[in-house]
């Protein structure tokens, strides 16, 4: 008799557990993912949900949210605008590894970081042919993610002369491209003006082709 009651109780509990498992599987494994996917299809969210992919000529060329620092085949004839340095890079200026993002976690007075900033400033000044004092702060400090897609207008302006010369474009044309891609502060007060590096390089490529 006791065995029968125990077996009956086991069957009821097992049945209840299986029913609960089925309900939660449907809710969390089907309905919830479908709801999230449905929200991501809303106007204004589709692009972000798909990774903010940037296309040129009908094919994907990058993301508006992930900065990738292009490497020139010949460093002496570098045609690209460059992003901020990445903490994941093997050398001071990069390029970094977009699949491994993150900051250095070094304090502002850390000797290693101070030396790294000095090396970056010297390398950028040499690349752009300007005094070290002309190199802006964001050019020598890595972003928290290491894959920041934006740079300051000051850093973009610093690169204009080189990009124009190597690409065979008038400097005024490249400067107009930079000015036309400056994004202001959010609501006029939040953040700092910025320029998307991928957008700049695509615009320069288009200007060269035309």
From TrEMBL:
Its main location: membrane. GO terms for molecular function: ATP binding; P-type potassium transmembrane transporter activity. Pfam families: KdpC. The chain crosses the membrane at residues 20-39. It comes from the Bacteria. It is a single-pass membrane protein. InterPro entries: KdpC. Keywords: ATP-binding, Cell membrane, Ion transport, Membrane, Nucleotide-binding, Potassium, Potassium transport, Transmembrane, Transmembrane helix, Transport. It is found in: Cell membrane. Part of the high-affinity ATP-driven potassium transport (or Kdp) system, which catalyzes the hydrolysis of ATP coupled with the electrogenic transport of potassium into the cytoplasm. This subunit acts as a catalytic chaperone that increases the ATP-binding affinity of the ATP-hydrolyzing subunit KdpB by the formation of a transient KdpB/KdpC/ATP ternary complex. This is Potassium-transporting ATPase KdpC subunit. The gene is kdpC.
């Amino acid at each position: 008799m006791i065995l029968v009651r125990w077996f009956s109780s086991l069957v009821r509990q097992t049945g209840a557990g299986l029913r609960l498992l089925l309900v939660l599987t449907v809710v969390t494994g089907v309905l919830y993912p479908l709801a999230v996917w449905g929200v991501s299809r809303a106007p204004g969210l589709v692009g972000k949900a798909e990774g903010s992919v940037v296309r040129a000529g009908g094919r994907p060329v990058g993301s508006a949210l992930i900065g990738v620092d292009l490497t020139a085949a010949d460093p002496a004839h570098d045609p690209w605008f460059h992003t901020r340095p990445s903490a994941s890079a093997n050398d001071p200026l990069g390029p970094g590894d977009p699949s491994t993002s993150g900051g250095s976690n070094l304090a502002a007075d850390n000797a290693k970081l101070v030396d790294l900033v000095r090396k970056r400033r010297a390398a950028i000044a040499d690349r752009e042919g300007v005094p070290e004092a002309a190199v802006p702060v964001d050019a020598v400090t890595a972003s928290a993610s290491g894959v920041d897609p934006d740079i300051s207008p000051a850093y973009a302006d610093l690169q204009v002369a080189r990009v124009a010369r190597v690409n065979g474009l008038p400097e005024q044309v490249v400067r107009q491209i930079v000015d036309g891609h400056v994004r202001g502060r959010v609501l006029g007060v939040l953040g700092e003006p910025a320029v998307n590096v991928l957008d700049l390089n695509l615009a320069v490529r288009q200007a060269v082709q035309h």
